[in-house]
Amino acid sequence: MTTSPANLTTAAAHSQVLTFMIGDATYGVDIPCVQEIRGWSPVTRLPQAPPDVLGVLNLRGTIVPVLDLRLRFGSTNVQYTPITVIVVVSVLSAKGQRDFGMVVDGVSDVIDISAEDVKPAPELGTSATDSCVRGLIAVAGRMVVLLDINLLIGREFPATATDDSIQAA
Amino acid sequence: MTIDLTQFHDAFFDESFEALDSMESALLQLDTGSPDPELINTIFRAAHSIKGGSSTFGFAETASFTHSLETLLGELRDRRLAVTRTISDLLLKSVDVLRTMLGAARAGRPIDMQSVADLQFDIELIIVQRDTGVAASPSPVTSRPHADPAPTRDGAPTAVAAVEWLIELRPGPEFFARGTDPVRIFRELAVLGTLKVSADLTALPSCRDMSPEWCYLSWSLSLLSDAPEAAIREVFEWVNADCSLTITAADPVRAAKPAMPSQPPAPAAFALSAVQPSAAPQAGASQEPGSIRVGVEKIDELINIVGELVITHAMLSQISRSVTGPAADGLRSGMQQLERNMRQLQESVMRVRMLPISVVFSRFPRMVRDLAQRLDKQVELKISGETTELDKTVLEKIGDPLVHLVRNCVDHGVEKPQLRSAAGKSAVGTIHLNASHRGGSIVIEIRDDGRGLDHERILAKARASGLVGPNDALSVDQIQELIFLPGFSTAEVTTDVSGRGVGMDVVRSNIADLHGKIEVHSESGRGSRFVITLPLTLAIVDGLLLAVGDQTYIVPMTSTIESLRLTPSQVTSIADGREVFRFREEYLPIVRLYKSFGLLPRARALHEGLVVVVEGAGRRIGLFVDDLLSQQQVVIKSLETNYGRVPGVAAATILGDGSVALILDVADLIRIASRREAA
Questions:
Q1: CATH number 2.30.30.240 given to A13-156
Q2: Which pLDDT tens digit goes with each residue over B269-290?
Q3: Interface pTM (ipTM) of the complex?
Q4: What is the rounded CA–CA span in Å between residue B620 and residue B591?
């Protein structure tokens, strides 16, 4: 077995990953990033936000943006029902801690992995996912796409939106 | 062996800067009348505490400078020198120099010793001149019981003979651990006269039993000096209370004279404890009774939590309204009680962050005085309402705009004395600075009785620079508004005071950042009046709730003028589908919020919805919305913490039902609308 690239082994040798479903695919994020899992509740729209940024939510007094990962990863048929789930994650960016919610179809499991379980991802062909995938994990014959939250949030929320994004009246 | 003193540096700097502020304000009051001994005492105390701190913390330059300053102040306090303009100028300059020195010391930068040395020389020159009688200013010494010449404090011995003082210093074991350095004390004593020191080593244990941080030494000192006892005690002021200190005069009768000139000689020897009675009121006066220093972030956290509580309460009370059954009445009355308590809690917590506006106003007497002197004008500054309190953040940000406005009043508003006399006005111009509460806002007014705004010249200037078309007719209000445009200045000569064309627009945008507004009212030849309206706090805003489609937006009350329902006949369509309507004397563009924000509205026809006339950055628009919901106070929440800036949106808040609503940035909406117009 060859040694894993250095950037994949920055986490502790053993870690836990929360897996969730989007369509037929299983994705995972590192457990330490996950703040909470909550049911769907209507969000407040943000004017002129990217289509997959649904709006903002009140998370115990903090205003948290909500990103629909399903739209992000190309699903076209998305529905918001009481069983739709928002996974609230938190990353440490240059601006400090940032929280955001990710809409997924459903949460499936928490799995234990070790660093060598994470295999580098091949080119998946869709730029939306390529840019934020940390690697692949094979669990019980299934493939889990491990996401890098930092990359996800870094691309999704520009520091400042520009005025030009406002539509002409 | 000393402990690391740097941990106390911040407190020392904070206190020193405060002391300088109180020194400065006392000096400015001193200038205008006969010297009030209490004021001189205040100044003296401030200088003294800076000196003490500086030498304790090893800022030798500051200590040396304040020592000279203190000597001069001592002369003033004891009325051996009269307060003259030269001296008060010198003292004000000293405040500036000290501020620079302490600022440099805090930032770890080198101090410009040349300017310090120059000033120190000037100060010492005055003292020396008085000693030698060169600048024989008449000293109004009347209360002095002795006719003999006044003794100098630390100069050469004069008529008063030196006295031998016996001093016993028996410190507690923690003497060194508290950062006291006896050598420094001895050195300072040596300045006062001839000093002999002997150390008592009898308490010294063997090396094995010795704790390296403890003090086992005590000292007997003999000082031959003409200094009064108070001066000697002063040296020991920084010695902790756990030391035993005895100061006795070998010849008590003679010693008592200089120490207490206004009292009959005290009988016999007195052995006072280390805490001398006269030091107590001094220390008390320089400290606010019963106050503590608290980090701002702790207060902000508290305010945040209270904000959460307000929202949670609103949520609960909404639920409680739908509750039925036997417990419902009890629940509702409990909720009412909770609401009262909450409101009190909120007000108290907000008040913690509130500071009197005098914090900002206090810099103006000095500034106006200096500026008037430089411009050859006579200006009297009247300040009222300085106890009005407002949020610290607002206070910090309102300083610069106010400085600019006051500076403008002195520079542009108030005329030269000859001109004023010719116009039949008093040669001395008056600038009035006033702050007051009005509803949930604070109103700051800057008024001068100068020449007022010159409408002709403003208009001519605006036409010349292309800000106004050559044929545009403008109302008086509109002309006065022109001064807030970027790049506008009517000053004929650009001075270092003002006239560089940056200013009023910055003033206005700074105030807009605080959710406030500024208006100008001026009468030619009679003066002008600037009125700034600010919210009391940045944590809460009084807002109008608007509905567009299924969304709720909030527009700050300070930005709203009026809301009205338009009939199609009132609206004129102009090119590119843009619409305007007549409001009072002007035509305002209509901005449809659902279009700007890409929403599905319930009302598309103008007569089905409402137009809210809003104002920002001096411009007005009609904002078209579906409906007005209510008016309420909302807690401001940042969108940028977790997301980013959204055009046209200032922040967000959480409504009673727990949902998020966006707070509109009116100035930004107008800017976006006008950019679109220009495109």
A1: no
A2: 333 333 333 333 343 344 455 7
A3: 0.80
A4: 10
